[in-house]
Amino acid sequence: MTSTFPDISLNTDRLVLRPFAESDVPELTEMMNDELVTAWTSAPHPYTADDAREWINHMAPAERVEGRGIVFAVTEFLTQRLVGTARLRNTDWRCRSSEIAYLTAPWARGEGYASESVLAVAGWLFGDQKFERLELRTPADNTAAQQVAQKVGCISEGVLRNAWIARTRPDDDPDGRWTELRTDLIVWSLLPEDLETGADGASGGTDFSAFADWS
């Protein structure tokens, strides 16, 4: 039988990480059409409300049910507004290892939400799920993603050369069309003992509580 993560939500002092809901469609659609999201992800562009519904109702739940990982909508505790995503993927249940990917909405950048959500997921993954490794992969030119990895205490392990396709808008294209280009990926890792020794973002509001079957 395939191992799966429980259907839960996590919270920190400022955030609630929960399953996506139909009510998230407008904000998810807006977030995914942001230029930085388009540049650094493989999401469809333009990203439509139908794309959002397909993700919320089918693709994201399948990640958990089929044992590949789990997807969280990251929301502000006070306003309940969607401010990002955190997603475990490529999970290896025998090795107790998984990879995390994260996005921050343009209206929520600069608040430290990405590092806070990554630490919440990591704390739960290591503590409750008894995993032994969390991996991150960041495009070589995505300095914001690399800063998050450094802030949570990840160790840089090396470079996967020519391993990702990013998107850019060349300045000399009068129509502003997106062009694909290959780039390297930096591999980072976080182990349980890395959290125990502390990280730049590990203090102040990264303790989590887990709630089953969030509604």
Strand content: 25-35%
User: Over all CA atoms, what is the radius of gyration?
Assistant: 17 Å
Read across the widest sheet, the strand sequence of neighbours is 7-8-6-5-4-3-2-1-9
Query: Quick check: average pLDDT?
Result: 90
Total helical segments: 6
Helix/strand/pairing class, anyone? alpha+beta
Helix percent band: 25-40%
* Shape summary: globular
Secondary-structure element order, N to C: EEHHHEEEHEHEEHE
How far the N terminus sits from the C terminus, by CA atoms, comes to 27 Å
Largest sheet: 9 strands, mixed
Topology, number of strands = 9
Structure description:
The chain has helices at about 25-30, 35-40, 50-65, 115-125, 145-150, 190-195; strands at about 10, 15-20, 70-75, 80-90, 95-105, 135-140, 155-170, 180-190, 210. The radius of gyration is 17 Å and the shape is globular. A hairpin with a 4-residue loop joins β4 and β5. The protein has about 220 residues and is an alpha+beta fold. The longest helix is centred in the first third of the chain and has 17 residues, at about 50-65.
Structural descriptors:
alpha+beta; nine-stranded mixed sheet; globular; 9 strands; 215 residues; 28% helix; 6 helices
How is this fold's topology laid out?
Layout: E1 8-11, E2 15-18, H1 25-32, H2 35-40, H3 49-65, E3 70-76, E4 82-92, E5 97-104, H4 113-127, E6 133-139, H5 143-151, E7 155-168, E8 179-190, H6 192-196, E9 209-212
Parallel strand pairs: 5-6
Antiparallel strand pairs: 1-2, 1-9, 2-3, 3-4, 4-5, 6-8, 7-8
